[in-house]
């Protein structure tokens, strides 16, 4: 049984009568003890998808239909996690490291206040003394000196602040950690440290990590499985090696081709055009206006996900015709 079963969800932003179709018809299984990446260009719905998984669904965001089943361990058999009760499981079973998470620290409060609030809101079942013990052991284990608790956020570097947030997200050993662009706004060396820290946590706690990034090199180095999103839809999903060695969807291929490669003298290839406005996305396959292979059917009919090899799925009419995604 998968840890998470996401079935055909549609998540929309509503502003008056204007509907932004940020996530549409997305189905995804997330297994226990895996690191799965969600990749795609800016504005393709990655953050909306993970916010929906976390249950942070507040207006103007609505989950219009579909379901998410959470199969966390050690829950009584009649416990069902829903949008209403999911906040009770936050930090304990499911944690969320939001985009630009270092900015969630209150600039006029010491770091210890942040952790005190975390205890007050979520772990009053632990005595404060035991919580403090747990916290200092955990911080040290993650390579953070306990003295940072006495610091204000402005006294820490961006990387330290990100480690504090990752420390908080992993403190109660949740089964699922969602990290939305955990390395953005950090310099390359610090990015590596942050990814290593997440890997260390995953190795030790065997939790599942969903990581969002638009940077395919982060995906390549960090994830076991990757889901590629385009304009609100998942267009391809597979093991990292399969995605990079045999990308199926033309969009995935273009994303990978846009990565710099050592020794490649051909120059970088960009993806022509830009992602569509999700208020009125293109008909049929949403990628068809930018796709070098599109044909009549692509403009009219939205392709469905099909499995082309074990665990490797994509939604593309071209593949169904048995053709490849080599650039024309
Ligand atoms: N609060 C909001 N109200 C209306 N539309 C929104 C809101 N937040 C996001 N959107 C829209 O939803 C779509 C998906 O945005 P989302 O942030 O999920 O994409 P993303 O892939 O995570 O992008 P990025 O990498 O830039 O964060 C975009 O068209 C965006 O403009």
Automatic annotation (TrEMBL):
Q: Which organism is it from?
A: Petrotoga halophila DSM 16923
Has keyword Protein biosynthesis? no
Say which domain of life the source belongs to: Bacteria
Instruction: State the Pfam families in the record.
Output: ABC_tran (PF00005), oligo_HPY (PF08352)
Q: Which residues form the ABC transporter domain?
A: 6-256
Q: Which InterPro entries match?
A: AAA+_ATPase, ABC_transporter-like_ATP-bd, ABC_transporter-like_CS, Oligopep_ABC_C, P-loop_NTPase
Against CDD domains, the record matches this protein to: ABC_NikE_OppD_transporters (cd03257)
Q: Which UniProt keywords are given for this protein, alphabetically ordered?
A: ATP-binding, Nucleotide-binding, Transport
GO BP field: peptide transport
Q: What is this protein called?
A: ABC transporter
Whether Chloroplast counts among this entry's keywords is no
Q: Which GO terms describe its molecular function?
A: ATP binding; ATP hydrolysis activity
């Amino acid at each position: 049984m998968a840890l998470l079963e996401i079935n055909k969800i549609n998540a929309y932003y509503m502003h008056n009568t204007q509907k932004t179709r940020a996530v549409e018809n997305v189905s995804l299984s997330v297994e226990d003890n895996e690191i799965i990446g969600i990749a795609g260009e800016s504005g393709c719905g990655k953050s909306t998808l993970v916010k929906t998984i976390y249950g942070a669904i507040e207006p103007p965001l609505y989950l219009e239909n579909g379901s998410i089943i959470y199969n966390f361990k050690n829950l009584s058999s009649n416990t069902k996690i829903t949008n209403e009760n999911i906040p009770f499981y936050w930090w304990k079973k499911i944690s969320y490291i939001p985009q630009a998470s270092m900015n969630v620290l209150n600039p006029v409060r010491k770091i210890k206040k942040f952790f005190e609030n975390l205890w007050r809101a979520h772990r009053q079942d632990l005595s404060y003394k035991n919580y403090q013990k747990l916290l200092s052991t955990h911080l040290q284990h993650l390579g953070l000196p306990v003295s940072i608790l006495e610091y204000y956020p402005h006294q820490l570097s961006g990387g330290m602040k990100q480690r504090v947030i990752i420390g908080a997200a992993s403190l109660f050993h949740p089964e699922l950690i969602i990290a939305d662009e955990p390395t953005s706004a950090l310099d390359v060396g610090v990015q590596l440290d942050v990814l290593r820290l997440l890997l260390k946590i995953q190795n030790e706690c065997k939790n599942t990590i969903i990581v969002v990034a638009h940077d395919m090199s982060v995906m390549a180095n960090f994830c076991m499985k990757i889901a590629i999103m385009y304009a609100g839809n998942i267009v391809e999903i597979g093991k990292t090696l399969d995605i990079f060695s045999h990308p199926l969807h033309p969009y995935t291929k273009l994303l990978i081709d846009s990565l710099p490669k050592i020794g490649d003298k051909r120059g970088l290839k960009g993806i022509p055009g830009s992602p569509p406005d999700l208020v009125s996305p293109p008909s049929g396959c949403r990628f068809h206006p930018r796709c070098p292979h599109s044909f009549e059917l692509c403009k009219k009919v939205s392709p469905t996900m099909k499995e082309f090899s074990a665990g490797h799925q994509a939604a593309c009419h071209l593949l169904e015709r048995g053709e490849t995604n080599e650039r024309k």
